[in-house]
Amino acid sequence: MGITLPILILALPLFMFLLLGIGGVKMSRKTAGVLGILGMGTTMTLAYIVAFTYFFSGDAAFINAEGVRQQLQVFDVTWLAFTPKLVVKLGFLLDPIAAMMLVVITTISFMVHLYSWGYMEHEGGFQRYYAFLNLFSFSMLGLVVATNIFQMYIFWELVGVSSFLLIGFFYRLPSAVSASKKAFIVTRFADLGFLLGILTLSYFTETFNFIDMTSNPMNVLAETGGATFLGCSVLTWAMVLIFTGGMGKSAMLPLHIWLPDAMEGPTPVSALIHAATMVVAGVYLVARMFPVYCVVDAAMNFITVVGAITAFYAAVVACTQIDIKRVLAFSTISQIAFMMVSLGVARTYELPGVHYGGLGYMAGMFHLFTHAMFKALLFLGAGALIHAVHSNDYTKMGGLRKYMPITHWTFLIGCLAIAGIPPFSGFFSKDEMLAAMFGNSWLWGAWMTMVAGLTAFYMFRLYYLIFWWEENPEYKHHRPHDAPWQMSLPLLILAAVSVVAGFIPFGELVTWNGAPYHIHLEAPVAVTSIIVAVAAIALATVMYRKKNPLPSKFRNAMPGLWRAAHHRFYWDEIYLFITHKIIFGIICNAIAWFDRHVIDATMDAFAKVTQKVSYSIRGFQSGNVQSYVLWYFFGALALAAITWICLL
Amino acid sequence: MDYSQFGAMLPELIILGIFLLVFLADTFSADGSSKKFLTPFTAVLFLLGTVAIWIVPSCGEAVFGGMYVDNAACKAMKCILNCGVFICMLQAAKWVESDDMKMRKGEFYELLLVTLFGMYLMISARHFLLFIIGLESASLPIAALVAFNKNRYESHEAAVKYILTAVFSSGILLTGLSFVYAFSGGSLYFSDIAAQITTGEMSGLLLCALAFVLAGIGFKLSLVPFHLWTADVYQGAPTSVTAYLSVVSKGAAAFAFFIIFVQVFGQVYSAAWEWMMYAVIIATITVGNLFAMRQKNMKRFMAFSSVSQAGYIMLGSMAANQLGLASMMFYIFVYVVSNLGAFAVITSIENRTGLVSMDDYKGLHKSNPYMAVAMTLAMFSLAGIPPFAGFFSKILIFTSVTGSNSMALYMLVLIALINTIISLYYYLLVVKAMWISADEPKIAAFRSGACERVSLGLCVLGIVFMGLVSCIYQYCVSSVGASFFLALN
Q1: Domain locations along chain B
Q2: Is A647 in Cβ contact with B272 (below 8 Å)?
């Protein structure tokens, strides 16, 4: 593969960002929109060409004689060489997950570009919006093709910045501003851990390069040697710290608090960034470093536990939210945690009683792919609803199936997919994940099956409350209708993909070591998960299909639990208490005193002395050439004399 | 004699050719005409010449019995100087069209080219006689340039101060060289002298020689305490000439300094001149900063800022190895665009309004936002704020110094870092005046000419991208690696 296409995939969004960002002021909305859509369409085509060449061309560079897919650095140039050892490179790594992510990112991004043309039509700053979308796409593409962990970190931060800009897009709304700040600060805080992890790891391995590290993880283990810190090996620390960065971006407990608030951004942005692409960066990071994680059992268990708790927590909270975008946000958290658990339970070496062979890896990536499609579909559908009803609140909706048929059917497909009903795509990926979890331990399998049931329940609760339940009387004044074609077309395309994506032979394409993995449906697991999902849907149907007092009865039966879940188990309050009361109130006061009276005073003294000296030596510069020359001559002599004396 | 050896001197010949063409065009154009064609003619010719110098590979071998050498590193240095000269020419385009300059602009370009020719010789010379010829032809025409504003008294005063100090410093340098001659047993070839001066025989005479040579070249670099002429001359000279003096002339001297001290006196590096430079660098950075803090006149301000920057440039010579030279080249290149960016703004404002005080810049962002942005970027780059080029050049030159892991050198970098903070103060004073001051702008909105805009655009591009685009630094490293000529003990 030449380097032209890969470079273009990265350069085109960057160029469009600069073009729309700088020249956008002078463009009409239509020009900016068409340019943005065309640019992303071209990028998508290029990415498809690259990905399809990689998967299906059968070239020896991509797949060897045994059918094992290869990792290939298309290019890897030195960017900054600080010292011979500390060299930062930028490159383009092509391997199964990178190629898959190229497809996911560009597809969703293109859909969102198209959709936004209708959705953002009446908003100010249209050109700026498209510029930011392109910046995000560029950063995300750069992240997935990074050849080394430092490049990934750079783009990781760029992704964070573009997410900040897009969440705060409606910068006149105070809630949007604080949401964007919250997202940035929380993820940035997590990235501190990521950076420390990178530094720790690369200090021992003396390389940032992924292939160097992952092709021989035992070597990495050997290089870190027996060094320990606080009872854990250094490698465990490094991998857990790196995972911290992933926890921030992928909104794992307890760093999940930014994602629900990030829904303040425009809905298409939520579909692109906070459902399909950026939030899976954490999963992608773990997948990228997977072989190294595999040799650190403690880190893998940590990932599994964090994922399992988060998945359950988010699913419970999702059952009680009123804002439809928040339901989807918590659903996203829960599904991403599902993928994390799936990666966490995967093993590539033999252990007693544990299934190995990296099924969890394949399943997690499969679910990443299908989830990106149907979750983007659900978000875009929610956008169409909000566009029609002008509210995020399901109490303002109800009975919409008659008014918005396209939205209704596509949303239903999305719900069926996420609930795991065959033959929709979510069923296949979720089934593989559950099989992987049962393969590790029945405990994880049972736990996550329960979460899958909860998922089906809250999604259909949402579906019925929006499209059935009871009609909002305001429809008589303001009749809701389906969205314009720019918005409906992406819905239809994504719905079609969500129906068929399950039949992609994923095991042949994306596996942890490139060798094909033969998927076979595990009948007991599949049947169990179908039964659980159908039962959950049936329960939701009984409770929410028509207006009835059953939901309020349930609520009143356990008011404490309901209120706690509705308030997301008070995580935000805990954070506020810790930051405001403890950190700002107690610790910071002491530090501020020290800062004012010791550090500032020192600096002031330093500045005063400098000023005084500066004033007192002004006589040097008398304007008198004779004295200049005198200083010159005696300066030279003094230099010689002083060196002479020092050498004696 | 083998005349084909002249072929090895291609860069010098190209500059000489351009000089001759400009001279002929200037002389034979009609007397009464305003010679409008001269500026584009010179600029295009010079640009083509620069490209030719860059493209044609250097022969890399010493010619004329070893007096002259042109290798990849020398070529890279010359190209860096050319960039500076080209930007200076563009900046001067408006000034040379003013009434009392119109007739004499040919002279201005010719003098620029002659000094550049001298600087080329300084870099390529491997024999002190050739070096002195280069130094003098790079030095004397500058006095004429400084005095170019015939009708301004300050311009004359500055020229007189310059020429007197320059003559004195040449005297000191030649005295120093005569001491060196005494050591070398009658040869002025760099290689012969290097073979004679070894660590064994440290004497007062050798130290004097070193100090005098250092002083002679330090004059051109305006190292403390040989810098006292700087502020007066920079202030009095026409601003375009000041810009030229502050970057191109200084850059050439720094390259020559490195080559001479490492190649000729490399054997006594750790024994003698490392500590001389140690003291001089600390004094230069600190004194330059202390004076710059108090300046209100922008040209004097830039003068002291350039004194302090010279100290940072010379850090590269402290490393005295390949990485040191490469990072020094990169630092100078970045310094060229940053400093000329600042001068582009100062020049165009002075040409229109005659104002050069920092107070006059108050509220500049309201009347001339683009100028204010460019000036801010230049100040950020000079102060070394990431992600601008100045940050990268500083960090690279610091890493090259600390490479040898000596505690004393770490201390030197620490002192340089503290000075960076001080310099931040006065660079930000300019930014504060332009952006934060609430006063109504004194400078009315104006539209600058095409040449000025191009020069400013080039500088801003350089400031923003030079650090991020790593191939420039890589080019410096590879050019030095390809043609390194010394072995240090």
Answers
A1: 3-488
A2: yes
Tell me the pLDDT tens digit for each residue of A366-406: 999 999 999 999 999 999 888 888 888 887 887 788 888 88
Q: Residue A379 in contact with residue A277, Cβ under 8 Å?
A: no
Pairing of the two strands A87-94 and B62-63: unpaired
Nearest CA of chain A to the CA of B27: how many Å?
A: 37
Helix (H) or strand (E) holding A348: none
Taking residue A443's Cβ as centre, other Cβ atoms within 10 Å add up to 11
Q: What is the distance, to the nearest Å, from the Cα of residue A221 to the centroid of all Cα atoms in its chain?
A: 28
| A81 with B164: Cβ contact below 8 A | no
Provide the H-helix boundaries in B29-152.
38-55, 72-92, 105-124, 128-146
CB-nearest partner of A621 from B231, B395, B396:
B231
CA-nearest residue to B292 within chain A is A614
Of B204, B399, B422, which has the smallest distance from its Cβ to A83's Cβ?
A: B399
Q: Please give the C-alpha separations between residue A551 and each of A453, A562, B25, B111, in angstroms, as whole numbers.
A: 18, 11, 95, 91
Partner-chain residue, chosen from B208, B224, B225, that has the shortest CB–CB distance to A640: B208
3-class DSSP assignment, residue A479: coil
Min CA distance, A492 vs chain B (Å)? 43
From chain A, pick out residues whose CB is under 8 angstroms from the CB of B391.
none
| Per-residue pLDDT tens over the stretch A280-300 | 999 999 999 998 888 888 888
B212: chain A residues, CB-CB within 8 Å: 636, 640
| pTM given for the model | 0.80
Which three-class secondary structure string do you get for A103-165? HHHHHHHHHHHHHHHHHCCCCCCHHHHHHHHHHHHHHHHHHHCCCEHHHHHHHHHHHHHHHHH
Pairwise CA distance, residues B350 & A279, whole Å:
54
Q: Do A78 and B474 make contact, defined as CB atoms within 8 angstroms?
A: yes
